[in-house]
Amino acid sequence: MLEGKDLILATRPFAQEIRWKSWWHLFTTLVVIAFAYTVIFTVENWWIKSAGSVLLALTLGRLFVIYHDYLHHAILQHNKPVKWFFTVFGWFSLAPISIWERSHNHHHAHNSKLYTTSIGSYPVVTLKKFLESPKGEQRAYLFVRHPLTISLGYIFMFLYGMCIRSMVNNTGRHWDSIIAIAFHAGVGVLIGVLAGWTGLVFGFLIPFFIMLALGSYLFYAQHNFPGVSYADKDGWTYAGAALESSSHMRMSPVMRWFLANIGLHHIHHLNPRVPFYRLPEAHAAIPELRHAKTTTLLPWDVLRCLRLKVWDTDTQQMVGMREIRVRA
Predict the structure, then answer these.
(1) Alpha-carbon span 259 to 277, nearest angstrom
(2) Which contacts (CB < 8 Å, 24+ apart) does range 145-149 have?
(3) DSSP β-bridge partners for residue 231
(4) Cα–Cα dist 5/293, whole Å
(5) Where are the domains of the chain?
(6) pTM of the prediction?
(7) Which residues lie below 8 Å from residue 196, measured CB to CB, with a gap of 6+?
(8) pLDDT tens figures, 271-306
């Protein structure tokens, strides 16, 4: 059985970009986005507009994963037009490069490590620490992890967390957060002026609420699921965190396309240089990667993930409000 460094080394053959495939995936994604916008802005039937809006939201989610791979230096490096395209897309999606790279790279380096999980991820505290915290801190912690807060990721995770908070905390370092807010709002105003209120709703607001709600939930459930493990600094290892604390989210072929294989998240955490379109290859070729802890997007699994609140060091598992009330 491959473990640790040997397992990471086994993924290296798959961390080689196939450039024409990268271009093909980017091109076809942009074609679908263009088609969705065409449907939204030219068809009168509201049901068809709604379908176009959902299609746009899901395909923008796919483009976000491709953007995410680009920032991991997995695809399309050393190309200035691509760099500018993804810079603008980062503004458009309220995930400017400076804050996304800083927080996301920290998340990869400290995934599931207790006491550092709040940077670039949803915060996790121990049951003991939660019960010892003031009521105000408890409410703030539960608010961040509340299903409604996650579903409104457009507002709380991206607009506020990615842009406003980073801008306020360090304007000099995250000046592109200001640009992102202005650019994102400007696109919305432009769509409203050119396409009216229906264009604004179906071509901007609905897609972003769906896309960023799904993105926020995925980011949550990939590291907050039944069976997840957390460790202090003495018991933490990089490979262990990838396999024990990052889920394999099983999806249908359709959702795997829309979300660019992000469900194979344990492999991505083991080696973020593996392009998204090669993750299934690595999964098929390396037996140890096929034993990851799993979840799905089915309603009952979503509920199981959302009920988890704090890490119980006694039972070594995430627990919910029922357990918190029993111990309170």
Answers:
(1) 11
(2) 145/220, 145/224, 145/309, 147/306
(3) 113
(4) 20
(5) 4-12+19-327
(6) 0.94
(7) none
(8) 999 999 999 999 999 999 998 999 999 999 999 999
Say which DSSP state 319 is in: E
Q: Beta 294-296 vs 248-250: how paired, if at all?
A: parallel
Q: Which tokens is 209 given? A: 């609420």
**Residue 12: beta bridge partners?**
none
Tokens 């491709």 found at: 66
Instruction: Kindly report, residue by residue over 167-192, the tens digit of the pLDDT.
Output: 888 877 888 999 999 999 999 999 99
In the Cβ-directed half-sphere of 131, how many Cα atoms lie within 13 Å?
13
Q: How far apart (Å, rounded) are the C-alpha atoms in residues 35 and 82? A: 21
Provide the token pair at 327. 């111990």
- Give phi and psi for 248, each to the nearest 5: -95, 105
As a whole number of angstroms, the distance between CA 212 and CA 222 comes to 15
Residue pointed to by tokens 């176009």: 52
The DSSP code sequence of 123-161 is ---BHHHHHHS-HHHHHHHHHHT-HHHHHTHIIIIIIII
Virtual torsion, Cα 179, 184, 190, 195, nearest 10 deg:
170
> What is the 3-state composition of the chain as percent helix, strand, coil, each rounded to the nearest 5?
65, 5, 30
> Hey, which bits of the chain come out as E strands?
248-250, 294-296, 310-312, 317-319
- Beta partners for residue 249, in sequence order: 295
Q: How many separate helices (H) and strands (E) can be counted in the chain?
A: 18, 4
Counting other chains too, the contacts that 187-195 makes at CB distance below 8 Å and 24 or more residues apart are 187/92, 195/41
Phi, psi angles (nearest 5°) of residue 296 = -145, 180
